């Protein structure tokens, strides 16, 4: 990282960003160019969980190449200034690399859905329709590498 003074080295802060944010952007390869999508997600034990339909462009791309890059920001605020060149942004974010595993086992999918629901505040008493759980696939992003960056407190 070029600006070491902005690097987040505290693993606790990185964990906070992962467990308290609401949108994860995942970039995958579409032949010779990147393809990026935003997702709702759940985080647990160094993995990001996303629910998906079992078919579609992202599924096709991930079956060809399951290596991904991801970005999550927990805070972003543009700070205006009278001088245009003095505008700045306060933020906290993480960027990482990993690979996607397709989860199709029913019980593992239910557990992943619980992680996703917990990310948004519902930590218990989740009720799922069996047919809906059967129809989805869970994308489990195994985090292999991650770094954090912030500007401001």
Quick gist of this model?
This protein has 153 residues and is of the alpha+beta class. It has 4 helices and 8 strands, in the order βαββββαββααβ. The protein has one domain: Electron Transport, Fmn-binding Protein, Chain A (Pnp Oxidase, Chain A).
* CATH-level-2 architecture: Roll
- CATH names the topology as Pnp Oxidase, Chain A
CATH superfamily: Electron Transport, Fmn-binding Protein, Chain A
Mean pLDDT: 92
Largest sheet: 8 strands, antiparallel
Q: What coarse outline follows from CA principal-axis ratios?
A: globular
What's the order of the H and E elements? EHEEEEHEEHHE
The helix count comes to: 4
Number of domains: 1
Helix content: 10-25%
Rg, Å, rounded: 17 Å
Overall strand count: 8
Task: Please provide a written account of the structure.
With 153 residues, the protein is α+β, with helices and mostly antiparallel strands. It has one domain (4-151): Pnp Oxidase, Chain A (Roll), CATH 2.30.110. Helices cover 25% and strands 45% of the residues. The chain has four helices and eight strands. Strands 1, 2, 3, 4, 5, 6, 7 and 8 form an eight-stranded antiparallel β-sheet that branches. β6 (67-79) and β7 (88-103) form a beta hairpin. The protein is globular and about 55 Å long. The protein starts with 6 loop residues before the first strand and ends with a strand. The mean pLDDT is 92.
């Amino acid at each position: 990282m070029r600006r070491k003074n902005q690097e987040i080295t505290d693993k606790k802060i990185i964990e906070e960003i992962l467990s308290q944010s609401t949108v994860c952007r995942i970039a995958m390869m579409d032949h010779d160019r990147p393809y990026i999508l935003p997702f709702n997600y759940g985080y647990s034990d160094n993995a990001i969980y996303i629910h998906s339909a079992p078919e579609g462009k992202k599924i096709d791309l991930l079956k060809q190449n399951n290596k991904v890059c991801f970005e999550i920001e927990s805070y972003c605020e543009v700070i205006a200034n009278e001088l245009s060149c003095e505008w700045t942004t306060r933020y906290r974010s993480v960027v990482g690399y990993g690979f996607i595993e397709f989860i199709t086992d029913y019980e593992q999918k239910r557990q992943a859905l619980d992680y996703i629901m917990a990310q948004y505040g519902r930590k218990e008493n989740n009720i799922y329709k069996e047919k809906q759980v059967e129809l989805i696939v869970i994308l489990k992003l195994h985090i292999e590498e991650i770094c954090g960056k912030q500007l401001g407190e």
